[in-house]
Amino acid sequence: MRSGRTITRREIITNLSIGIAGLTTMPRVSFSQPSRPEYKLDPKHLKPLKLKGRIKQSACRWCYRTVKFEDLCKAAKAMGLVGIDLVNDRKDWATLKQYGLQATMVPGAGTIPVGFNRLEHHDKLVEDFRGNAQAASEAGWKNVITFSGNRQGKPDAEAMDNCVTGLNRIKGLADEFNVTICMELLNSKVDHKDYHFDHMQWGVEIMRRVNHPRVKILYDIYHAQIMDGDIIRTIKDNLQWIGHFHTGGVPGRHELDDTQELNWRTVMKGIADLGFQGFVAHEFVPTKSDPLDSLREAVLLSDV
Fold first, then answer.
1. Quick one: which of 49, 155, 193, 249 has the most CB atoms within 10 Å?
2. CA geometry: angle at 234 spanning 277 and 85, to 5°?
């Protein structure tokens, strides 16, 4: 059993904005944690890895909050990553470009608790999507994120109808700004109680009804394993609706190693063999004293 409390992505994202008023500006995430010493980049992480490159790998910024952003970019470039995921702060985008990296996912519309499952949120979500999509387009980024929102008693069928309505309102803007909006699947069992899009088939039905090449699912394998399992078959059957992947070991959302219940190399081979051309972003919380050791191991494991 791993010890010590880890700040979760849920806490970081939820604290950004609980209510609809919080959608007025693009989320800003603070990665400082005064109780922990700032990470000093080990030169070993600047030694280039030679990858096959069948999987376009990325890493989520929030998982490396003790690492200076520029140091993370330096290490990511050396490891063969194509970019950094969930880069919410636009002032960091220039640093990505300096190192030849992409922001593989940036804000689009909504927060985890506030999403398209409720009609009263739609006008604000569309407004925010327009601004965020334009900013992403001008920077050259391709993917923006959105969420279903929490249930709060909303029936599944009505919530599905509402999500279809909302996504239909913004798909033209996605075309205009040349971005793909990805609605994320999250688990409601462990990390995100009451989140609506917690089973793949619910989201797939939304995608079928919207039926647009720039509206996709962010298939977070960590969350999907907790809720549904059957990962490889699900990916194979629904690849046309998936625009982006996240990783994370179950249980605990830690390294992709032998403490986890999935054979991650087999999962990655399945994704690569299907010819997936999008990004696979590592979103696990490292437990090693040097968090970039964990990332480097995951990159090598995933290079199938």
1. 249
2. 45
